[in-house]
Amino acid sequence: MAELTNAAFFNAKPGRSEDLGVALLQLVSPSRQEEGCLRYEIHQSQDDPNAWMVLEDWRHPSDFDLHMASDYVRAFMAKVSDLCVEEVEICGYRQRSPQP
């Protein structure tokens, strides 16, 4: 069970949504291979094509900290100001409902 679920929200600059999507999708494979990663999904809004979200579950918060310190995530984060109108908003959650 995940100790940490994150929802990260990105809002692409006009004309940069496709570039942002490509960059986000490149994070999926290496993220899913990290120890402690239980889920890593990229979503694009049906209402606003510039709005993207990453949903991720981590076994422990420390696993997420290691993820954020990885070279490939740091390289991606350095591009965010070029691709997005604002900095990424990362919201952390704990599951409160029982497992099915």
Give a quick set of tags describing it.
single chain; 100 residues; alpha+beta; Alpha-Beta Plaits; 4-stranded antiparallel β-sheet; 4 strands; globular
Describe this protein's structure.
The protein has 100 residues and is an alpha+beta fold. The protein has one domain: Alpha-Beta Plaits (2-Layer Sandwich), CATH 3.30.70. It contains four helices and four strands; from the N terminus they run βααββααβ. The protein has a four-stranded antiparallel sheet. A hairpin with a 6-residue loop joins β2 and β3 (51-58). The longest helix has 13 residues, at 71-83. It is globular and about 40 Å long. The model has no long low-confidence stretch (mean pLDDT 96).
What is the element string, with H for helices and E for strands?
A: EHHEEHHE
Distance between the termini: 12 Å
Describe the global form. Answer: globular
Low-confidence stretches: none
CATH topology, what is it called? Alpha-Beta Plaits
Mean pLDDT level: 96
Q: Characterize the biggest β-sheet.
A: 4 strands, antiparallel
* Strands, total number: 4
Report the helical percentage: 25-40%
**Tally of structural domains:** 1
Structural class: alpha+beta
Q: Describe the strand arrangement of the main beta sheet, using strand numbers.
A: 2-3-1-4
Annotated CATH architecture: 2-Layer Sandwich
- H/I helix tally: 4
Domain ABM: 4-93
InterPro entries: ABM_dom (IPR007138), AI-2_Isomerase_LsrG (IPR050744), Dimeric_a/b-barrel (IPR011008)
Protein name: Antibiotic biosynthesis monooxygenase
Organism: Sphingomonas oleivorans
